Amino acid sequence: MNTIIIALLGLCLVFVAHGIPVSPSLEDSVQAIASDGTSSEKLAGHPYILVVTTHGNADTGSFLISATGPASVDLMSITPTTSQPMIIPSIVPTTSSSYSSSLSSSSGVFQRVSGDPEYYYYYQAIQVTVSTSATTEPSHLSSYSSELTSNSAIFYRVDGDSESTYHYQAIQVTVSISGTYTFASDSDLDTVGYFYDTSFDPSVPTENLVTDNDDGGDMRYQFRIEAFLEAGHTYILVVTTHTGSETGSFSVEANGPDSVNLVSITPSTSRPITAVPTEPFVSSSLPSELSSNSLTFHRPDRDAEHNYYYQAIEVIVATSGAYTFTSDSEIDTMGFFYDTAFDPSNPTANLITENDDGGDISLQFHIEAFLQAEHKYILVVTTHGESEIGSFSILAGGPASVGLRSSTP
Length: 409
Fold this sequence. Notes:
Elements: E1 5-7, E2 12-17, E3 20-21, H1 26-34, E4 48-53, E5 66-68, E6 108-110, E7 121-123, E8 140-148, E9 154-155, E10 166-167, E11 169-175, E12 179-187, E13 191-197, E14 209-213, E15 224-229, E16 235-241, E17 248-256, E18 260-265, E19 282-290, E20 295-297, E21 308-317, E22 321-329, E23 333-339, E24 351-355, E25 366-371, E26 377-383, E27 390-398, E28 402-407
Antiparallel strand pairs: 1-5, 2-3, 2-4, 6-7, 8-17, 9-10, 11-16, 11-18, 12-15, 12-17, 13-14, 13-16, 19-27, 20-21, 21-26, 21-28, 22-25, 22-27, 23-24, 23-26
């Protein structure tokens, strides 16, 4: 089998037979074509096209082709026809300019922006003028306003908490001119944006995902997405939140070479997502006070030389579950939680848990415990400092109301 070898250094080659690209290796290309028959005569008189191009974009320069084979090779430049002519985008020429100078001890001084306010900096001011204004691509601004509510659709967002659902709104995006477009959110919510190609399935949020963004916008906690869009093609922008179950209004601004069509849609899914029901939270409270007439005891965590005023509160619930008990007072309170009974002479007996400053309010306790229905517990409220007195209130919360009443052990 005869082989034609065409050598060309530093350039990319595409060899075409019958208008069909073959192997990118020239030697392999010609060998593959010749292997259609037992002799090389089938190559004679048949046209092939060698396309010479460059590895780098928009490179220009001279080149030389050397063709070697059993006979001379006729090489002739042609202009191929096409049903889709390509237009080279215009490129603004760049011109370099330079300026040389120096900063010396005689130069002017100032306090520069972001500099150390205790120091002065030498500077030279240079006036800049240009004779030709640069042209920029026209920019069109489009906007869309809506809100996320408790009735909005939910999904498990990409990179979100797997135990949380997120309200979202899907917005269909289409443009009539291809180009680069940006989408930026504006909201009091901490928003997150996901951009999809063609369609969005909330049950498979990674499918068709082009890009996403959380806090890339100019405004705090707002997303900014940039993407190249094809004219007439459908994209989906999904607006959601950083934290699960958040609701509120938002707006999206789209910017690009043409106006953007933004339409709210309801995406279809084969696996609808429903919110996991949450347990109800019922609050109960009891106001009271510690006075000089209140009972005293030796706190479990202190020695017997110190006495503390206390009040014992009987706790009973009708529904089993996790309950919290938090104090609110001007005095520094402490809480001790007991099972069944409390003996002030033996304060460690039946003790389940205790807390000093775990509450959201400064110097207040916060106790969390799992309570059995109709079982008696005792919450003892006392103080961090010895012999302190003052009013307080207890806020209890859980799946049902809590029975709270003062008791005398």
